[in-house]
Amino acid sequence: MALSVAVFVGSAGDWIPEIVERARxxxxxxxxxxxxxxxxxxxxxxxxxxxxxxxxxxxxxATVLLDGRDVHVPKYPHGNFLGPTVIDGVTSGMQCxxxxxxGPVLTCVRVATLDDALALVNxxxxxxxxxxxxxxxxxxxxxxxxxxAGQVGINVPIPVPLPMFSFTGNKGSFLGxxxxxxxxxxxxxxxLKTVTSHWRRQAGDAEAEGAxxxxxxxx
Length: 219
Fold this sequence. Notes:
Blueprint: E1 5-9, H1 16-24, H2 44-59, E2 63-66, E3 85-88, H3 95-98, E4 105-111, H4 114-122, E5 126-127, E6 129-132, H5 137-146, E7 151-154, E8 170-171, H6 183-188, H7 206-209
Parallel strand pairs: 1-4, 3-4, 6-7
Antiparallel strand pairs: 2-3, 5-8
């Protein structure tokens, strides 16, 4: 799972240039090569799709601050490589926001307030996961309570829980009526049994005659 859209609230957008410079230093190479930070895309079709979405962002008015489409890896000249890419000025109506790119691409959206950020996230038809990074406990609690995402992270980049908890996607990110692991997975494989019974009191029952608590003797 990857959270490929970053929503910058207020002055947090000032961090974007630093993010670009850090991303620029990531090494693109074969996935098994020592020191590689980013490996190739899974197929030529995946590379073509991601590249097309990057171009659509530029065509729709966003700014491609770091463009990884021209990356070259000498050892693998025919590899499906896409370098780290950062797109700024993205809005919710753009294709790069509406479709997950599935590549090393960060789309940056700027909003003024936490209310605006929540409205943006909650207005998305998907709801797999969302994370908030903050030093404010009040903001974290507000986000935790109000965000419409099935998996919520607080100061963690990937809000996928350990397997003993369910993978709780939400809205368009979830199909069916139950989750597939954690307690929900146990419930899925559990056969329930319902027993309905009725007992009448009869002579000789301990409840009818009272409990015997004396030392048993032979008579």
